[in-house]
Request: fold
Amino acid sequence: MKEYTKLLCDITKPGRTGYRLPPDELKDMEVEKGIPAGMLRQDEPALPEVSEVDVIRHFVNLSQKNFAIDKGFYPLGSCTMKYNPKINEDMAALAGFANLHPYQPEETVQGALQLMYELDEMLAEITGMERVTLQPAAGAHGEMTGLMIMKAYHESRDDHKRTKIIVPDSAHGTNPSSAQVVGFDVVEIKSDKSGNVDIESLKAALSDEVAGLMLTNPSTLGLYEENIQEVARLVHEAGGLLYYDGANANAILGISRPGDMGFDVVHLNLHKTMTTPHGGGGPGSGPVGVKKHLVPFLPAPMIEKKGDTYYLDEDRPQSIGRIRAFYGNFGINVRAYTYMKTMGAEGLKKVSQMAVLNANYLMHHLKNYYRLPIDRVCKHEFVLAGLGKKELEVNTMDVAKRLLDYGFHPPTVYFPLIVPEALMIEPTETESLETLDAFIEAMAAISKEADENPELLKSAPHVTPVRRLDEVKAARQPVLKCAMPEGPQ
Amino acid sequence: MFPYIPHTEEDVKYMLDTLGMKELEELFADIPKEVRLGRELNLEAPKSELEVQRLMNGLANKNKPTGELLSFLGAGAYDHYIPTVVKHITGRSEFYTAYTPYQAEISQGTLQAIFEFQTMIANLTGMDLSNASMYDGSTATAEAAAMAGDATRRKEILISETVHPETRQVLNTYAHFNGLKVETVPAAAGVTDLEKLKTMISKETAGVILQTPNFFGIIEEVEEVEKMIHEVKGLLIMNVDPISLGILKAPGDLGADIVVGEGHAMGNPMSYGGPYLGFMAATTKLMRKMPGRIAGQTTDIEGKTGYVLTLQTREQHIRREKATSNICSNQALNALAALVYMSVLGKKGIQEVARQSYKKAHHALTEIEKVTGFKRTFDKPFFKEFAVQVPTSPAAVNEALLKEGILGGYELGKHYQDQSNSLLFCVTEKRTLDDIQRLVKGLEVAKA
Reply:
């Protein structure tokens, strides 16, 4: 079948239309009269003119060029690409949720407020925190919010010296940049040989200038931080706070809570742990939970309850302020709430158990074909250091690209930065034994191909809609839009 | 059993055997006892799909959504028509269950959609280029301020009091932490006070942020501001309603350097305030200062056209501790909805939506003044929103309207003390003349 390669810029044709509005009931009114001449649009906006059929075919064809969870296994480490339950979508689309205006009187949105209040409670229980704000739109937004809260806390104690945030060398790239945009200086510390925070390195970095430490647990290596109590004690003794990056929370639900580990601030990614869809890169939701001493600093508004009535509390004098308009990605939070009600306490614990079982099963088999730098029980994901055959010219990128030919989404590659040729694999709990075995088989076959026919890997992928793309050209001669042809006026 | 977890008891046993383990517990042996939960989570028991549906329907039914209520509420969230096509595209799981297009070869659908979104936002705003979208209009505005600070190496941002109050609050929160100095330019008679602005602008000003139509619905006169800010080599940042650009001059033609705005009204439901999408467009000069993702066109090894995320040196995951923004995702699915909206409505539709909204809003104000005797708060050119002074308390008027099944206006006194007797109404193309009559009648009732 001939491949679809058109842009809307190509298929637009003057005179076509994809919509029809009710007739203009005010034909005689002249719009031009009411607008200052200098503010009137002179040209027609260069948007396409296409029929509804054109639009549907165009986007259905585009969609078919995507890989997605609903098509197959997507073991993208750190991203928790688990199945997105369909009921979540239907519930968020209920008119009683989707058609609410954010400024409606509280008496007309009691169901929405109750949902948000209860989601706050449920997330607080899971993380071991006091309260949770649902406002942050994404994980990075949550990080920023949490760091602002930490800064506000220190400032409220007239402690203005604390300008530094400690981040381990295995951290997500957003951690240092979030610290940076909130006005902190970043101090990087090392990981030890077994993937834990290097305690000596931490001790050396701690001082009365440190506002706190950002940590994921399990770490980006997929390993539980065995020294967590010692780490928490040291940071707290130095007057700092502990920030938990919830990217890896899928490993610990109902098993170990950040609050009990000693963390003061947590963000979760509902688009990872709570099955809300990734949407091709958003919208997500990155709620932030805090312990009691930090509650006053949470962004305004919070949802509160008086008797049986829920309301928005804007009166929060110590709050960091507002971090986005309205109340967060409500539609996403409805999906997460639906999921948590479906799973309950028992289901969420099983999620983590099966996620960890799947990861260990894969690791056990794949270490026969790939280099495993740290061999200990992993949590929900693990990191391989490529093929580990130095004499070969084949690298991790080649392995990833070859996996595309086998119909799998590749793992996260070249991250974390501390592992050379990293392949970060997170199977999640929604994958069956049969899927895992098929993946192992493909990874084994690729390892064999690397020995016997390396060119096959280096020139991969072979069967995708496009092959390896020239990224240097894209950056050097940026083409960021197409030209819409000018039709007759 | 759970429908999203495929493991049979046998599977679990087999996998544990393979690992040389007897119990699942052994997988967690590395977690110190002291930090184990040691009890079940205090959440409810699992629920079947039918039970969950019942529960969720119950919650949804406690709300009174627009549709059930006749809405004349705007103030940053708008009840515009959403073509049916939109949800059929965004509901395709090839789009919504994919992640960030890190593997470009199998993400061409998402990448081309971003490229086309950029094209249409650039064309609508009259700017050289656009990014792939941001969290919402308010954060896009705060990011634009940081970008202006970075591009000019200055710290001062001036923002008009007529910009959405929540956008100003967000900017102030961001600025408190990132070191920008924000000053508010007062409003006079519903528009930015240009005399005051003249005294505030200086060679230290990184950028001026104007919203048009502004929070009161009024079309600001931008030309004067453009001259003032460019004279001191600062940047003009415009926050616009994309729908208004069907009839209002493109910001690019007004000399804007950065254009941002809330894009939800293009194909995304109001959904109690989110998820929405912010958009950001700029001049070529600022291309490498732009935060967020950008898709670019290129070719593959066989010369075939394809798309990749590009200009990545700007992105947080490369610059790490030199970052001026930490945004790494975009609102891809909301941007897709906006793209489908812009495709379906197209060149003519966006104009017709804008014209009908404009006309109906003006008709509504005329009728309100004629029938109720209430007066407009500001006598200035407006788009689809207008403020009206009411003789009793605005809250009481809204309560009376609600009894008639009408969602009334936004109470301006919440954020503007000198407008405490005004309501801000919004009329979109979705309202009919009969709807407007209902509002007018409702106001008559409220008066008494």
